[in-house]
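USER: My hope is that you can spare some time for a protein that puzzles me. I am handing you a single protein, as its sequence and its fold in C-alpha coordinate form. Walk me, if you will, through where the backbone shape changes along the chain. The protein I mean follows directly.
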Amino acid sequence: MVKGQMIQDEGSKPSLGKRLRAIRAKIVESGEGLMTIEEIEQEIAEQRDRLGFVDE
Protein backbone atom coordinates (compact mmCIF):
# COMPACT_ATOMS: atom_id res chain seq x y z
CA MET A 1 0.00 0.00 0.00
CA VAL A 2 1.27 3.47 -0.91
CA LYS A 3 1.52 6.00 1.93
CA GLY A 4 -1.74 7.97 2.14
CA GLN A 5 -3.66 5.43 0.03
CA MET A 6 -6.97 4.34 1.49
CA ILE A 7 -8.36 0.83 1.19
CA GLN A 8 -11.98 0.67 0.05
CA ASP A 9 -14.30 -2.25 0.65
CA GLU A 10 -16.33 -3.68 -2.22
CA GLY A 11 -19.50 -2.05 -0.82
CA SER A 12 -17.95 1.28 0.14
CA LYS A 13 -19.18 4.64 -1.14
CA PRO A 14 -17.66 6.09 -4.31
CA SER A 15 -14.95 8.69 -3.82
CA LEU A 16 -15.90 12.34 -3.43
CA GLY A 17 -14.36 13.13 -6.82
CA LYS A 18 -16.43 10.47 -8.53
CA ARG A 19 -19.61 11.74 -6.84
CA LEU A 20 -18.86 15.35 -7.82
CA ARG A 21 -18.19 14.37 -11.46
CA ALA A 22 -21.53 12.52 -11.55
CA ILE A 23 -23.36 15.56 -10.15
CA ARG A 24 -21.64 17.84 -12.68
CA ALA A 25 -22.58 15.49 -15.53
CA LYS A 26 -26.25 15.59 -14.47
CA ILE A 27 -26.23 19.40 -14.35
CA VAL A 28 -24.61 19.66 -17.79
CA GLU A 29 -27.05 17.05 -19.17
CA SER A 30 -29.99 19.07 -17.84
CA GLY A 31 -28.92 22.06 -19.92
CA GLU A 32 -28.54 24.30 -16.88
CA GLY A 33 -25.32 26.28 -16.88
CA LEU A 34 -22.66 25.78 -14.25
CA MET A 35 -21.97 28.60 -11.81
CA THR A 36 -18.84 30.71 -12.21
CA ILE A 37 -16.42 31.01 -9.30
CA GLU A 38 -17.74 34.53 -8.72
CA GLU A 39 -21.32 33.24 -8.53
CA ILE A 40 -20.24 30.52 -6.10
CA GLU A 41 -18.45 33.03 -3.88
CA GLN A 42 -21.53 35.29 -3.92
CA GLU A 43 -23.80 32.36 -3.01
CA ILE A 44 -21.52 31.41 -0.11
CA ALA A 45 -21.48 35.01 1.15
CA GLU A 46 -25.29 35.21 0.95
CA GLN A 47 -25.73 31.91 2.82
CA ARG A 48 -23.25 32.94 5.52
CA ASP A 49 -25.10 36.23 5.93
CA ARG A 50 -28.44 34.43 6.06
CA LEU A 51 -27.15 32.05 8.73
CA GLY A 52 -25.51 34.81 10.75
CA PHE A 53 -21.88 33.87 10.22
CA VAL A 54 -19.35 36.65 10.67
CA ASP A 55 -16.17 36.79 8.59
CA GLU A 56 -13.07 36.49 10.71
In short: Helices lie at 16-30, 37-51. The chain has a mean pLDDT of 83. The CA atoms of residues 38 and 44 lie 10 Å apart. Residues 16-30 form the longest helix (15 residues).
